[in-house]
Design brief:
Two copies of one chain form a homodimer. Chain A is α/β, with parallel strands linked by helices. Chain A has two domains: 5-295, Succinyl-CoA synthetase domains (Rossmann fold, 3-Layer(aba) Sandwich), CATH 3.40.50; 300-482, Succinyl-CoA synthetase domains (Rossmann fold), CATH 3.40.50. Helices cover 43% and strands 16% of the residues of chain A.
């Protein structure tokens, strides 16, 4: 009895019971580290550890064989040497396991012997109707099950981005970056060598997955590019697919061949495929998260008009340049807005777009300016520079009061943080109520001074450390909106 | 008696005695904040505060007039309203003051009345032989004197970058960013409206200044573009000049006019001028510091060959792509290097350039790989990804040992930090001994996990949070080397 691909990926990301085969009581072994990550990640399913040697890991007993468990298991993760993999499928099958994650390396990515071994492994699994993730994978993450079946000790945050990556190192790093920026993931899989399950399978699952609002792909080469294209054309009308294509040069191509055994394919072919599939290309590693985050959190703009709010003149000039170069319409401030903003700002303010708040230190005035500017129907995207890091900027007050008592300094700091939080919350509300993207650039001295984390308001808004990133995101959003409109027109 | 421009700028950045006119005992007034910043910055010259009302600031008495000081003063900073500025020059002249910094806004940047007032002010100063920085400036910084005569409470770090900025907000933010990245400045001036002293004057001084190795300009428009070009052509053969040109679009141009009263000039004209002057154009705000930092810390490469070291496969593929796209020669690993690296790495390593260290956790092996790769005469630039943030990556060990005692966890952490420090120090030594740039990409989860600050080894090396930034810097360095070679050839 074979199980359909979509059932397999559903089981993979929703395992009620999973086993780690090759679990080890020895600190420092992958057989120890992986179960530790699963346990510490608070997996809500049942975890069974298996090793002929027995023992225990963090209080969880190690069974000597799958048969000892006496329960049907959905998923197994293998932390055993490559040579031993093909021998475990019989036991797996008897335990009811439908899919295994093979983290072992040393298969087709490393040598021709490895390639032959990989082929034997896939055949062996197929004879039992078992499907394979990897080999040469760093594992999976699944938010609804709090399942961190991963090699590195990252602690992903739950969210709405589903991510399939052809590099575990890059993939898990993005999970880590996300967790510190308030950017969460619904599902993650490191596709590894794709000896069996491949990008197309994962893409199909993400398309149907209710937890997933945006799909992210880090790709060196597709095994079934035509199938991916077919799927993307359909899926991208509903859920945006952000893609980073690596291995587009000769040097990158060769590096990819030894890394993921991927045939990278020419840049032109992939460029055409990405366009035709309606996918969104991330041009830099940073854009992968920036784009996905914005697509989860912000509405799409109705037009290319943009309003810019700036705390200081230079940053406003820079943001205006960037917006115009990105094809935005930085249209002049309407008279009624000049009047209303003039009631809030000192007489010597800029009276234009960008609205230069000329360094005023009243944070309530910043909020009022944002409300006034973003309420203008003339502007369909808003970029706001410099308020989010108010706590840093106004650190001023703290230095002033060196001689004042500690309590007063704390009160001041709390006040600044409260004001910054209020501003963040207002950004979120305005974005929701006005249905237009508002992108906030904090520009703190240190990234850590930018408010981060799930408890902070910016986990609901998009913040950036420089205007370049904000404008690139705004550009991506407007292109996405235009793509969807053009497809709707084509169909009507 | 008139003093030459070069004497004036020398006095400006090396004031033995300075006065703040308009000093105020009132917390929150600029007349209080500016002296606070000077005092807290530990100015090594003598500071005199002046206000008819008297009082004191942090124990420094406020004189009721300049004449009460009874000493010759070099420099005055004015924290008084615009309308009062033209009246103080007589007193200043009698006190021996040669140059004043006018922070007041409300001059030509804001209205035609302001413009007229600015003209009157310059005339009044000139009649006493006094020169002006600003108005509408945020002040200056001078490292040898620990002088932070600035409005915002930034604490710049001493170093070798001289920076003239047409935006105080942007300028001081860069000082702050630098201080948290181990990037120091020799001098800083916010040029303001350039009613008198202008970019050309500052540039001339920076050229002669022994503290300065690299010059940075943030420019909206030059008052004397021809003079700047003449100077740049000469200076850039000796000291690199990094320039960010803002106001290159219609929207940016208009914003600049209301911000710094600058005539921004067309992008083409400025592009030609930057090239002809041998200046290095920063295309993003981030590149301003990235470029200057590298030009201070790294040697220039002899060719476009690059060797890439990577901890994980995906990042290696990405770096190889970026290098090839930037015009680098990512040439194959020579056989002898394959042999020597093979002695350090597991059998399944990539055997190519990029050298993929396939995730090995032995940090001494990383150092050894770096030594071997950078010693290859085949490679004139080295990009090293993923080791600098070892303390984060190996945070693994910490999570493992939750049950172990606190002391052991601390020992582990210290060990990781020591290894990362050793790696950083070795990067520095290799760069110095081999005379080739080695750029390190840390990619920590949070920027703060990247080692920062003056006590850390990376204050001597260049570190980046993503490969894009490192490759852009490498590209800039090779272009700088090629420019210098082409100019040498032209002269020989």
């Amino acid at each position: 009895m074979t199980t359909s691909n979509s059932d397999i990926t559903r089981i993979l990301f929703n395992p009620r019971r999973m086993a780690v085969i090759g679990a080890s009581a020895n600190l420092g072994k992958w057989g120890h580290i992986v179960p530790t990550n699963i346990i510490r990640g608070n997996y809500t399913g049942e975890l069974f550890l298996v090793n002929p040697g027995g023992g225990e890991i963090h209080g969880t007993p190690i069974y000597r064989g799958l048969e000892e468990i006496g329960r049907t298991v959905d998923l197994a993760m293998l932390t055993i040497p490559a040579q031993q993999v093909e021998r475990v499928f019989g036991d797996c099958s008897r335990a009811g396991i439908k899919v295994v994650i093979a983290i072992s390396g040393g298969f087709s990515e490393s040598s021709s012997e490895g390639k032959a071994m990989e082929e034997r492994m896939v055949k062996a699994a197929a004879s039992y109707g078992i499907r394979i993730v990897g080999p040469n994978t760093m594992g999976i993450y699944s938010a609804p099950w709090s399942l961190s079946a991963l090699m590195p000790p990252v602690a992903p945050q739950p969210g709405h981005i589903a991510f399939a990556a052809q590099s575990g190192n890059l993939g898990t790093q993005l999970l880590g970056w996300g967790s510190h920026r308030g950017i969460g993931f619904s599902r993650f899989v490191c596709v590894g060598n794709e000896s069996d399950l491949d990008f197309a399978d994962y893409l199909e699952y993400f398309a149907e997955d209710d937890e997933t609002k945006v799909i992210l792909l880090y790709v060196e080469g597709f095994k079934r590019p035509r199938r991916v294209l077919e799927l993307a054309e359909r899926i991208s009308l509903d859920k945006p697919i952000v893609i980073y294509k690596a291995g587009t040069t000769r040097a990158g191509h060769e590096a990819a061949a030894s890394h993921s055994a991927a045939m990278a394919g020419s840049s032109e072919i992939y460029g055409g495929m990405i366009r035709q599939g309606g996918m969104i290309r991330a041009e830099t590693t940073e854009e992968m998260l920036d784009f996905c985050d914005a697509l989860v959190k912000t509405p799409l703009p109705r037009s290319r008009s943009v309003g810019i709010l700036s705390w200081g003149g230079g940053w406003g000039v820079i943001a205006a340049d960037l917006c115009e170069r990105a094809g935005f319409d930085v249209s002049p401030l309407p008279d009624y807005a000049k009047k209303s903003l003039g009631d809030v700002l000192p007489t010597y303010w800029s009276k234009g777009n960008p609205v230069d708040m000329v360094g005023i230190v009243d944070l309530d005035a910043h909020t009022r300016c944002l409300e006034l500017l973003s309420s203008c129907p003339e502007y369909d995207s808003i970029i706001s520079l410099g308020t989010i890091n108010a706590a840093t900027a106004f650190g001023l007050a703290q230095r002033e009061s060196e001689k004042l008592d500690k309590k007063l300094i704390d009160v001041q700091r709390q006040y600044m943080e409260m004001k910054a939080s209020q501003f963040g919350r207002r950004v979120y509300e305005l974005m929701r109520d006005l249905e237009k993207p508002i992108l906030a650039v904090g520009m703190p001295e240190r990234e850590k001074d930018l408010q981060e984390g799930s408890e902070r308001p910016n986990s609901k808004i998009c913040t950036y450390t420089n205007p370049e990133r904000a404008v690139r995101v705004a550009e991506m959003l407007v292109e996405r909106a235009e793509y969807l409109r053009s497809r709707q027109e084509a169909r009507s």
